[in-house]
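Homework help board

Subject: predicted structure for assignment chain

Our instructor gave us this sequence and asked us to write out the predicted structure in token form, then describe one feature. I got the tokens but I'm not sure how to describe them. Can anyone check?
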Amino acid sequence: MELLNTFKLKLKQARGLFPSRLPVGKTEFEQWSDSIIELYSPPGDKRSIKFGLCALLMRLNQTEAFKSKAFFALCLYKGAAAQVAAYVMEEIKAEQRAEYEAAEKSRAEAIDVQVQNEGV
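My token output:
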């Protein structure tokens, strides 16, 4: 039974590679977005995924009425990777800022010691 379910999922994923009509109406959007979530398990909670799908839909050109579900799944994965990369970059910047400030403090202390020694 599990083999049959796996086969059905893979078949649906293969169908998702082909362009299909974009959803028109809330009911269609819910079914369409739920099918992307079911087929490709994009990262994030359901609400965030649907928000991302809305953003992607709104960025499409006016003449793009057909797009593959796989396209949207890949965009969601790329978006998640970009979020992680941005977070890591911010961590690195904070570390560099702390290192720079520590080096500046050390330099200032060294200058103070030098000035005190010259004054003696």
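Reply (TA_rk): Your tokens look well-formed. For the description, you could write something like this. The mean pLDDT is 92. That's the kind of observation they're looking for.
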